[in-house]
Here is the input.
Amino acid sequence: MKSHSLKNTLRAILVLFFYLALFLYAVVFNNSSGWMLLFFLSFLLIGNLISLIPAHKKIHLEMLENSTYRVGDSSRLMAEVYAMRPFLLPLNCLTLAFPSTDNKEVPFFLTYTGKRKELSFHWTPKTRGYFSVLPVTFFSTDFLRLITKESVQQLTGQFPVLPKQEDELARKLLQGILLVEPNFYVPLGNRTFMIRNFREHQSGDPLRMIDWKQSSKRNELIVKEYEQEQEQKTCIIFYGQQHTQFEKLLSVFFSVSQQLSEKMPYTTQLLAEYPAEIPEEYILAALQPFSEEVTIPMHSNKKLIIFAPELTKHLENQLQILSKTNELLLITFKAERLYLQYNEQVIDIETMEVQQ
Here is the structure.
């Protein structure tokens, strides 16, 4: 838009010089043709100023459809521009500039009379959040394009911007979890060495289950059944401390949740602040760090994946209690690098190579 304003300014200077030159010509030579040209140009400039009368504030913007967006991803927005009543004079060269929009797709109307028009443009959010308005800058000019009129309007709607995708880090993190816990994706408990019962062999029982000692005593094939460990459910917890790496960790949490949903069932807990009226599917857009450290709810016999920006003393004490009855995996930052901690094992996630 700066280039257009510069062109308009140069054009206005040229017209002003031409007008002054014509005025001097009419005064010096005092002939009818000079005065007629001067009056014609004066009336033309007055009419040109009148073309600036239509006000931008009469124009309304409205979203046609709502969706969810992600930081750094380009999304197409559909909106409608209209005026409650048609303009007596049209707006010339109306241009709408949206935030973070590809300049090649800026909506432009040579003359706009206030009729309903559909707009389609790409929007690339730069920050996460739950927004209800987007600022839109309106530009219009006189028909000679000498003066530019500018105003800012608000596009109303729902604009939930989810965290940035951190797919590569998420894949590395899941690989790291499998390194320290190879049976992490197994939904059922593993078989123990404790024998629960003996029974007769049935068709389909594998040979490794046959107890040959008991079989020889009873003179028939006897199968041994083992005790099964109780199923461990998985819970992913986001511990939202105030920290410089809050946004990055939330992005990793978001990406891991998406990738993990394709592999196993799990539940989530978000220990952070957000408005109560926010719809559940938009909570990650509105999530903010808690002002004071909170207590993680008690769990028993679960796999807990805890995302925390920093391992504080308060959090460490909580993890010691939870570790007595749960299997814990901690994802946190040390010196701005992402680490996975499981028991005594610590893995630098960012230095891992992604395996296909």
